[in-house]
DNA sequence: TTGAAAGCGCTACCAG
DNA sequence: CTGGTAGCGCTTTCAA
């Protein structure tokens, strides 16, 4: 194994000079630098990560904690993780992959052992017990999600409230006067996952502002679940002409069930969703949808956490604006709109 | 920060004793061990990873290289990665996440810098340039996939040939005499990805043995691609009554197109696939399918690579047997089988 | 602009 | 069964 002193010897300089050539932390004459670099590549020298970390007290690694639950949208996780890894590499950092099930203890372990310089934690819930632990660590952290009390921690996420607003408003502007939100499975609400609630609030707020009737219910992502959900909202809301879907896994069953019942999209029923682009275009009629900018969130998380690490910035909360993509699943309301009241009461609630 | 000598002082023993308590590499009296452990937890001591790695020349980390291409099946990758991380943790190892795009240089970097003790590389192609690089590294490696020349490297993968055989044979046993294989997109074959070819060979072999007619064509996973594929095989193979799908992304379009054309599954056409269980059950008619045991492959990869690291085993190739799950998409051939020839010529080829 | 050398915290060898 | 201690390969301060 070739070490820094092998390089120093070969180049006829001191060890510290080689180190400074590598780090750029002090000026080096062009000729010296060149000699050193020649030796480095001719010897095939690679600085040893552990020695560097020990001496500098920096690991050049970030921890990334990903969820494993079955109700997460796997492709979104992957996009996000890719964004993190690629961005980390452009800042000369590596990524240590951890799973949710290591829990708070895992965070303490990697932090305490100095394995990483900073942490990025996905899928953080409103009352996540890990939040308090993260606040107590030596290393900075950025969360994907928005806990109730984010003090001291960076947060990045889609602005779910704005996403809910955008979708509801879009339907209202197409003349729809009665909307239904197909929400995530009940388990997601039970867990107190804040994004579901934020989306719902945005949806309700826009519906109210636009003066349209709107219901919302959680939905199990299966054929049976979707069928039951449909029965319920159709009986609950006569004149229903548009759906907002915040449940990726329910999309396929939903569209199957609709087609089986002879309800055409968008002629009979408009559908808009929050889902990745590739999912949106995987149906016979491409879905108008808001996307989760997962890769961007990943990049941003890395940049925020490194800014905190270098003292360039304080922890802050960043909610990214939703991007709506119009495709083919949203049309005008089928029946001429009934005379629009100046200010109708919006009804929106999230039942079980 | 609390160090090993703080613990030694607190417990009234030497640092080496603390070290040996931690590693268990030499006998320690019960009383000493207890005192040391008490000090460790009362001081909240965490051994520093970098110092340990420097002194022991072991990082206790594995590199995991995941693909980023759009034609990979993301959930399978995730299952696999989870299996790797969880298993690595049970063996006291962490996982460094790398992306495909770091290429051979990335492998050399993490290897040369001693960041990891071993490497696991996913999605390895028949003529993958990384194979030669991996062979030259100091650390052992295990590949997911099967390159043409795997000498010196461990390999784990599904036995794709057996999977192709199982599916074709299953259909033949249900009386189907004319089969079509809907393969991955042409890009996959062009890339020389060995799993596609292995699956195809197994399918062809079983068809020949069973004396059934069988065609095979690559297919773009889109509505247009699937429709064109269907037109082609139906005109090419009169009496076609069963499909084998080796293209997860094409499943949804395929089933939509079939339903739009009034072809019922399984009454008019039987369909079997190679896909994850959750995908198989996400359609109106649950698909009989072979699954990729991704989590198992991940576990196995970790165990194999650690066995190599510890000198407990030589690099070897392990192909896991396919597991077929009967669901609802496969029925008997619709028309009574034509008199079965003793040994008919099977036709199977993979056109563009 | 460069060199010398003191650690960083741990492991594992050598002694006892 | 336990202690002392020489490194592991690098960074960074102090000195020149």
UniProtKB/TrEMBL annotation, chains A, B:
Q: Which Pfam families match?
A: LacI, Peripla_BP_3
Keywords recorded for this protein, A-Z: DNA-binding, Transcription, Transcription regulation
Record flagged with keyword DNA-binding? yes
Q: Where is this region: Disordered?
A: 325-352
List all membrane-crossing ranges.
none
> Could you tell me which residue ranges the HTH lacI-type domain spans?
2-56
Q: Name one GO molecular function term.
A: transcription cis-regulatory region binding
Gene3D superfamilies, per this entry?
3.40.50.2300, lambda repressor-like DNA-binding domains (1.10.260.40)
Record-linked InterPro entries? HTH_LacI (IPR000843), LacI/GalR-like_sensor (IPR046335), Lambda_DNA-bd_dom_sf (IPR010982), Peripla_BP_I (IPR028082)
Instruction: Return the protein name.
Output: LacI family transcriptional regulator
The taxonomy runs: Bacteria, Bacillati, Actinomycetota, Actinomycetes, Motilibacterales
């Amino acid at each position: 194994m070739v070490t820094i002193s092998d390089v120093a010897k070969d180049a006829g300089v001191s060890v510290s000079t080689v180190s400074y050539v590598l780090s750029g932390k002090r000026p080096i004459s062009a000729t010296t630098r060149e000699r050193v670099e020649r030796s480095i590549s001719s010897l095939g020298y690679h600085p040893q990560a552990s020695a560097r970390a020990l001496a500098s007290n920096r690991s050049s690694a970030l921890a990334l904690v990903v969820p494993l639950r079955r109700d997460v949208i796997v492709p979104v996780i992957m996009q996000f993780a890719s964004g993190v890894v690629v961005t980390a590499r452009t800042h000369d950092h590596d990524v240590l992959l951890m799973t949710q099930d290591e829990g708070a203890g895992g965070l303490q372990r990697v932090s305490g052992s100095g394995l990483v310089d900073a942490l990025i934690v996905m899928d953080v819930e409103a009352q996540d017990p890990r939040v308090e632990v993260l606040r107590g660590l030596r290393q900075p952290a950025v969360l994907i999600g928005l806990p109730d009390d984010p003090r001291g921690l960076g947060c990045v996420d889609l602005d779910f409230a704005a996403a809910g607003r955008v979708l509801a408003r879009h339907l209202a502007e197409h003349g729809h006067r009665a909307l239904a939100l197909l929400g995530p499975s009940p388990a997601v609400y039970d867990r107190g996952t804040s994004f579901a609630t934020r989306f719902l609030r945005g949806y309700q707020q826009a519906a109210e502002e636009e003066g349209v009737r709107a219901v919302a219910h959680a939905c199990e992502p299966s054929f049976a679940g979707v069928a039951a959900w449909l029965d319920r909202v159709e009986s609950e809301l006569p004149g229903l002409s548009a759906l907002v879907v915040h449940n990726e896994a329910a999309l396929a069953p939903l569209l199957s069930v609709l087609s089986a019942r002879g309800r055409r999209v968008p002629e009979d029923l408009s559908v808009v969703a929050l889902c990745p682009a590739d999912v949106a275009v995987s149906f016979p009629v491409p879905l108008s949808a808001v996307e989760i900018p997962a890769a961007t969130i990943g990049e941003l998380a890395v940049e925020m956490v490194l800014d905190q690490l270098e003292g360039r910035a304080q922890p802050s909360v960043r909610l990214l604006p939703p991007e709506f993509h119009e495709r083919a699943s949203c049309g005008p309301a089928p029946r001429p709109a009934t005379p629009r009241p100046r200010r109708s009461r919006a009804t929106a609630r999230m039942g079980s």
